[in-house]
Amino acid sequence: MRASSFRHLLPSAVSAALFTLILAVAPPQAFAADEAAPLVTDPQLEERVMDLSHKLRCLVCQNQSIAESNAPLALDLRNQVREQLAAGKSEEAVVDYLVARYGDFVLYLPPFKGTTLLLWLGPALLLVAGAGWLGWRLRRRAEEVRSAPHLTRDERARARALLDGTSPGTSPSSEEPRS
Amino acid sequence: MKAKFLVPLALFLVLAGFLGYGLQLNPREVPSPLVDKPAPQFRLATLAAADTALGVADMRGEVWLLNVWASWCVSCREEHPVLMELARDKVVPLVGLNYKDTRPEAIAWLEAHGDPYTASVVDADGRVGIDYGVYGVPETFLIDRQGVIRYKHIGPVTREAVRDVLLPKIAELSRAS
């Protein structure tokens, strides 16, 4: 784009000022016009176009759907979608048309097939592996607790005496060792 | 069991390996499903003369390159000298697909920078571009004698890409019947 000169800038500044002035002096009723006319002739078709466009990825700004993107290509693709739906093609046919040209990449919902197996099953595999590992750990810990060495009654009494700070043997604990 | 403390380190290294590999990839390069498929047909007016048309069918029997370009495309300037060299060496016919451009601007661009193309065809509304899965200009397609797309280069063609990929592929395709 060429930088616009002041010559171009000036009229727009003047008209902006004029517009503001009109807004300020005109009675508010002047603007209470009818509802805005719909921009599309066929709202039903437009809804289908937008529904489908939300499922298609724009290849230029890759994290936007072609419904959201303002890239010229997204506009072209939206027009293609609209044109083909208007011509009576089904949603599937339009998706196939785009996939044939741009690959599965245009789909936000990738198909289930050989190359996407890991993508689709990976989370489930991780879940199963995690649950398996957790179960194994829990079982092993239970095993460790069960096979931990038990203290005899004397040992227990000595330990208690040591903890209490009294000399061992003076007050044997009446507590039974838990099994 | 003594080496247990190394487990997080090992996990980190694996993760770092994956991420490092990911950094080497170019997310802008979307593999084209059109490779090894017949080139989509078109018949478009040439840039030089609006009343003459050129299509895929006319190139049958030749190994050729289809280069998508536009006067508004900045990276096209980057690859332009490389294309000029290709044209000078007369490697293969180089057809330009002038994508979503205006005729006067395209002609002016070629006059200013030099015209490497055997011919350019005008795809003003980008329809043929969509058929070829074009999503970023420049893109270059290598098409064989039978009219099958054999390779797609996304982004500006570099001297390295010509030397390491395009020329070997062209030689291979030229040898094949």
From TrEMBL, chain A:
Residues 160-179 are annotated as: Disordered. Keywords: Cytochrome c-type biogenesis, Heme, Iron, Membrane, Metal-binding, Signal, Transmembrane, Transmembrane helix. Residues 165-179 have a biased composition (Low complexity). The chain crosses the membrane at residues 117-136. InterPro entries: C-type_cytochrome_biogenesis, CcmH/CycL/Ccl2/NrfF_N, CcmH/CycL/NrfF/Ccl2_sf. Residues 1-32 form the signal peptide. It comes from the Bacteria. Residues 22-163 form the CcmH/CycL/Ccl2/NrfF N-terminal domain. This is Cytochrome c-type biogenesis protein. Belongs to the CcmH/CycL/Ccl2/NrfF family. Possible subunit of a heme lyase. The keyword Heme applies.
From TrEMBL, chain B:
Its main location: other. The keyword Disulfide bond applies. The keyword Disulfide bond applies. Keywords: Cytochrome c-type biogenesis, Disulfide bond, Redox-active center. It is found in: Cell envelope. Residues 33-171 form the Thioredoxin domain. InterPro entries: Periplasmic_diS_OxRdtase_DsbE, Redoxin, Thioredoxin-like_sf, Thioredoxin_CS, Thioredoxin_domain, Thioredoxin_ResA/DsbE_sf. Pfam families: Redoxin. Belongs to the thioredoxin family. DsbE subfamily. NCBIfam families: dsbE. This is DsbE family thiol:disulfide interchange protein. The lineage of its organism: Bacteria, Pseudomonadati, Pseudomonadota, Betaproteobacteria, Rhodocyclales.
